[in-house]
Amino acid sequence: MQATAIAQPNIALIKYWGKRDVDRNLPAVGSISITLSDLHTTVSVELEAGSTGDQLSVNGVENQSMLPRISHCLNTVIGEKRPRARVSSDSNFPIAAGLASSASAFAATTLAAAAAAGLSFRTDQLARLAGQASGSAARSLYGGFVELKNVGDAIDLTGLCDVDSWPLQVVVAITETGPKATGSTQAMEISRKTSPFYSSWIEQQDRDLDIARTAIERRDFEQLAAVAEHNCLKMHSVMWASRPPMVYWNCATIGCMQTVRQLQASGCNVFFTIDAGPQIKAVCLPRDVDVVSEALIETPGVQEIMTTGLGPAARLIDKT
Ligand code: DP6
Q1: How far is it, in rounded angstroms, from Cα 65 to Cα 8?
Q2: For 319, which of 3, 204, 241, 253 could close a Cys bridge (C-beta 3.0–4.6 Å)?
Q3: How close are the terminal C-alpha atoms of the chain, in Å?
Q4: Closest Cα partner for 45 from 306, 317, 265?
Q5: Ligand 1 centroid from CA 49, angstroms
């Protein structure tokens, strides 16, 4: 009754921002992401006699604040009439800081919970279950380039291109390691209810998805760079124009954007994307990864960089 799974976070190039059904956590828009290789979360789920009192430890420390979401995720996967669970989650990167730790954590929890309970699901079913816990987690059930589409009252996921077919590199510039002020779940609802740009964000998303999908099919870096940066900045414009405004950037975030602009001007194949946090993710061709890493680590305010390739799907690593 114990299983351990590992999952990598994913970074959206065409972003998920907004929900069409809050109760079932269905996204308002489709999204396209890349799963990363060197960042990971390992989750063990142990089911034991007794029906109440789940326990969660995150990086070795008892965690009460995430426990309700984890318990809810276990209920979704195993059912509400289930034994109590002891869950431990360990990540090798800062959590709750805009580095998609909830994506890797809920993808691994879903997989480990199903295995611990002896349930077998297809990957698309696991992705739907993980998506109910956190929308972006559905994408970490797949490796490489992944598209999440809205179909009827559900989501559907497709692998667009595997890791080896287009081995891009990602340089993550960490500018702040503390947890963010407003979590994505709450921030999306504030945007939906108050941002004057929200409806045009939703209207334009299918066009961005089409452009990005075609760029990935053709391995057209320039086209992907243009649409990904535009999509990211539109999402942040929605946030900035919300009430209260949600500005996740700091001075170093903007400094890193300028560094990426200078690299682009010197002929480097690189673009940036930013999620609900102050970190910059610079996506580049393998031949440019050293110059991108050097430029970002020298950017004032950058505390650390992590360099990673594209990674595999979530997988089970132990079951007893
Ligand atoms: C900015 O998946 O964390 O990273 O479904 O409410 O858990 P919930 O939201 P979450 O939101 C991710 C937002 C984003 C963009 C993205 O990953 O597509």
Answers
A1: 22
A2: 3
A3: 6
A4: 317
A5: 34
Rg (CA), the chain: 19
CA distance 33 to 145: 6
* Inter-residue contact 240 to 247 (CB < 8 Å): yes
Cα–Cα distance for residue pair 105/8, rounded to 1 Å: 8
pLDDT higher than threshold 90 for residue 318: no
Each residue's pLDDT tens digit, 23-34: 999 999 999 999
Q: What is the DSSP letter of 217?
A: H
**What ligand 1 atom has the least distance to the C-alpha of 102?**
3
Highest mean pLDDT among 46-55, 95-104, 107-116, 174-183: 107-116
DSSP 97-137: SSS-HHHHHHHHHHHHHHHHTT----HHHHHHHHHHH-GGG
pLDDT in tens, 79-119: 999 999 999 999 998 776 666 778 999 999 999 999 999 99
How far does residue 179's CA lie from ligand 1's centre (Å)?
15
Per-residue pLDDT tens for 248-268?
Answer: 999 999 999 999 999 999 999
Atom 3 of ligand 1: nearest residue by CA position: 184
Pairing of strands 304-309, 169-174: antiparallel
pTM of the predicted model as reported, rounded to 2 decimal places: 0.96
3-state secondary structure (DSSP) of residue 187: helix
Mean pLDDT of the region 292-304: 97
- Mean pLDDT, the chain, rounded, equals 95
Residues 131, 257: Cα–Cα separation, whole Å = 30
Of ligand 1's listed atoms, the one at least distance from the Cα of 183 is: 3
Tracing tokens 């970074």 back to the chain, one arrives at: 11
Spatial CA neighbour of 101 closest among 50, 177, 163, 30 = 177
